[in-house]
Q: What sequence folds into this?
């Protein structure tokens, strides 16, 4: 019997799946059964894209505008989006020949016969099982806090929705003020942030940790991700704590030091790229917002449910620059050399990201009547599929909504498909003479 | 007789010269004879740095605050700064072994014996002669317009000052409203923009044109510079014309189409990196300002009096990304291959630029009470040594002034010294095994 093969390359397949899911979502969310009051096609399209790309930007207030049916549609889109991205990213990771332990490689080689449908289905099943397990455990912990607060049914339902939303870094919430009501609550803070950090660090890192146990034995990628995630989160927490301490619209209004610390921690980890908030984003100080812009652009880990250009892309660019400044030719870290191809790819991902961001800002600065920082924040939040907003989303013009929708789509699928497009050797045979060009 | 050698590498020498000139300028501009009313040390330091780095940002109004003595000090600093940068840049260009015609190479080889004092002096003399010739010719043309307007003495003096300021891309003006009074005047527009375009395209391009005459025979660097300068200026003019046409604080207030076109042309070419203005910058539309931000960051040509990361740096990054997207390994253009080292260097220049810009924005967003766009515009204008401002310069806090001063200094000398630091082969002998890192 002949095996069936999908007649598309993986990137095209991914884009097709996302487009189909978004179209279905748009139609479902437009049904009378999904909303309390009818919403426009643009708004349901925006919401479906925001959910499927696990962004979390909202043009209508989720708990107010949608019925339970609508909310479940959103949760399903989030789960499909997060799962789709993770599956594809892990697939790339494997196809690029990354070592993740011989044992696992065998399992995956069995499970993933190139792009055969059977292989993909098995991989997705494994990831689905993993996601579901983590989400269920988190749901139980959240119930401990939320069932006493909200009653059995609502408590369980909220735990279920937020576990999915957090693990997939989606940032959708059933509270109109996101998690501001739980700013100082340890369980909410730990479980929600734990979920999106696990979801955001990347499946390969988790798998590496699971198999190797010892830090020393981890792959370079895992080591970098773990160290950098720690370093960036601690720095961000410190900066937010200091800058917002006296801001009476944010930390200043919290009575205890414990609350202030929890809030600083949460807003430090959420821009890459969870999108929940326990403080009012629009009230943050300008330097805090600017710092968040950078975090949102960098984003989470490769092979994760998070967005942005990815932490490793950022690290490779920094290393490439440092290497050049030291006058060396090859990037080395932890006794490993990083290939030139990765530098070019990282440069391409960051540059393309900036290109789309700049184009979107340019258009929105024409169509929207809003301060420049709000526009900047909105666009980068969409590109990084973060979902934080200074409040512009709800006020967007129709063109603005369409542009942001496109940026969410590009932000979610662009870096991944670029990462997939390995620089294959299509070079012409004729070698041109080298010629120097002065720079700087 | 033993030749005398300077015991510093060229970059260190350049930084030393700039520092000494700025200190001298600071002291001279602080003298009672230099100002109408005494200015603070910080203000004279800022002004001296702005003049020496040919930026043109001003904390005090040049014609109001300074006497003729003060203005002449500023003009001398501008000439020294422009000359210093051009000399150094051309020197690098030669040291990197760039071909600029055998004839000229021989002349330069004679004139420039590595870093011997004699060689440098000869090179500077040649450049000085060239600058002076261009400036004198321009001064005569400007006099035709300005002597009838201002009388003999003032007319000549204004022509002299603005010819120096324009050729060196300094942007200092003796009118409080820069050149807004001559918004539609063809002579002013042509001569001033002609000066800063000639000064900004780079000495090597001019020398190439002078010797080769035919476009086809020019070096790759010259071809790129000429084509890109045309393309970017025409695009910018079109964008400004369209976006500002109905803005009654800018183009909308001009009565004739001719005036509108001149103004669009002038504001299109001035952000890279002349810094004069014939329209009120603070009144421009947001998309126009955002577009200017990008132009200011890119800047002028290598080996010129202009600033920014440089047009070729930008082009190489764009080419590198396009090459990657096409799946090719080597950047080729016009049947020439561009070496990997140049890509790394361009990446380093752009990244370091962004690093300093982001740091400065972060600090200024703490110290200054101003809209974010104004801060962004001010910092990028300082980094690109452009000198355009939405009006923040005069309102800067003392810390703000010091930060902007540092950014002007870094913006002027940073890209050049980075361009100079060729990645020399200091690689360790041990070759580490390559390992892949997932990006995107
Ligand atoms: K998100
Ligand atoms: K300037």
A:
């Amino acid at each position: 019997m002949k095996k069936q093969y999908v007649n598309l390359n993986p990137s095209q397949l991914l884009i097709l799946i996302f487009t189909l899911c978004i179209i279905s979502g748009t139609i479902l969310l437009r049904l009378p059964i999904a909303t309390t009051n009818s919403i426009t096609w643009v708004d349901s399209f925006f919401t479906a894209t925001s959910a499927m790309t696990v962004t979390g930007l909202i043009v209508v207030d989720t708990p107010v505008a949608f019925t339970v049916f609508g909310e479940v549609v959103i949760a399903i889109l989030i789960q499909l989006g997060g799962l789709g991205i993770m599956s594809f990213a892990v697939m790339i990771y494997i196809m690029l020949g990354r070592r993740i332990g011989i044992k696992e490689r065998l399992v995956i080689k069995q499970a993933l016969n190139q792009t055969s449908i059977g292989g993909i289905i098995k991989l997705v099943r494994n990831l689905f099982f993993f996601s579901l397990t983590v989400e269920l455990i988190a749901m139980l912990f959240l119930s401990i806090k939320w069932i006493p607060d909200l009653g059995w049914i609502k408590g369980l339902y909220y735990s279920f929705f937020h576990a999915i939303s957090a693990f997939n870094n989606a940032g959708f919430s059933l509270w109109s003020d996101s998690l501001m009501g739980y700013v100082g609550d340890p369980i909410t803070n730990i479980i929600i942030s734990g979920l999106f950090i696990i979801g955001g660090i990347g499946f390969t890192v988790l798998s590496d940790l699971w198999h190797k146990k010892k830090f020393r034995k981890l792959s370079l990628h895992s080591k970098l991700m773990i160290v950098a995630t720690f370093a960036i989160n601690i720095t961000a927490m410190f900066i937010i704590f200091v800058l917002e301490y006296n801001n009476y619209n944010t930390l200043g209004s919290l009575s205890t030091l414990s609350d202030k610390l929890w809030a600083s921690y949460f807003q430090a980890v959420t821009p890459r790229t969870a999108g929940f908030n326990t403080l009012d984003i629009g009230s943050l100080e300008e330097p805090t917002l600017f710092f968040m812009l950078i975090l949102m652009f960098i984003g989470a880990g490769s092979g994760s449910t998070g967005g942005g250009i990815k932490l490793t892309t950022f690290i490779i660019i920094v290393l490439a620059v440092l290497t050049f400044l030291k006058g060396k030719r090859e990037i080395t870290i932890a006794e490993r050399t990083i290939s030139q191809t990765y530098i070019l790819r990282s440069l391409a991902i960051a540059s393309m990201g900036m290109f789309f961001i700049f184009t979107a800002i340019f258009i929105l600065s024409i169509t929207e009547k809003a301060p420049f920082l709000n526009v900047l924040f909105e666009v980068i939040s969409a590109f990084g599929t973060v979902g934080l907003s200074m409040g512009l989303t709800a006020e967007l013009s129709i063109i603005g909504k369409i542009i942001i929708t496109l940026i969410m789509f590009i932000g979610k699928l662009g870096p991944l498909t670029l990462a997939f497009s390995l620089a294959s050797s299509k070079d012409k045979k004729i070698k041109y003479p080298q010629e120097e060009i002065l720079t700087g």
